[in-house]
Amino acid sequence: MTSFIKYILLLIFSVVIGLSCTTTSEERSGTSNVQTLKAGEPQIHVPLDNENDLNEFVVGRQEHVSFFDDPGLERKVKKVEVPEENHYGMAMDYKFDEGQEAVHIRWFQYLPEKWTTVRGNHMKFPGLAHTDRHGWGGRQTAGTGGWSVRTGFRDHHASPDSITGEFYVYHMGMGRWGSIYPWEGTVNRGEWTAIENYVRVNTPGEADGVIKAWVNGDLVFEKSDLRFRAIGFEQYDISEILWHIYHGGAPPSEVDQHLYMRDLEIWY
Known about the structure:
Layout (H helix, E strand, L loop, with lengths): L2 H19 L3 H4 L15 E3 L11 E4 L3 E6 L4 E8 L5 E13 L1 E9 L12 E9 L14 E10 L7 E8 L8 E4 L9 E9 L8 E7 L2 E9 L11 E10 L9 E11 L1
Antiparallel strand pairs: 1-15, 2-5, 3-4, 4-15, 5-14, 6-11, 6-15, 7-8, 7-14, 8-9, 9-10, 11-12, 12-13
């Protein structure tokens, strides 16, 4: 074989290997695995710009919920207050008509300049769940009575923008309280931020449950080995969005504060 032919074969081999190792920007961002869900317009869109939108939820607590005229957006948005010495801003659940194996949600939130948390603690934000006898309030799950995947944010008090996001997860194998999975990067105050969650429940008994998070379209967390359901408990699929704002942990908010939310979008 001549050196020229060897060179051509080596060149073809290099191109083939290079193509096989190349990933698209979509794959690098982590969105390729959820395109069957988040494709086109969401199946459900709740604008959160008037009191009628609250009818979409099963409401537990809404005494600190109101609607605010946002001059930049030229529309109303949902305002949630967390008073000093209180835990709750709101407790509302969006219930699916039928249980789902996988759900992708997105909402937009605005944390004002004075938004904060007690040192070492987070404020719980919305998430996906099937709560029953377990999966909330310190009720550990064994895969036989419920689970939850909630979003949390915490102020590290190191700089004006030192806010980090995380998942707070009740799953099989958790400790006394839910497991905390920190996200990459930080979240800024003073701007509208898109938060996305994706959950796929596990095959009952298998460690193949998936959770993902995006901030402004960038994948910031992914885990694919969780267990939410034990063998024989297929009924604990995704049944609800926990549309909650709750400070803590144990400590309540140390100050009167608030935040804004709008445009809950759901793919399933």
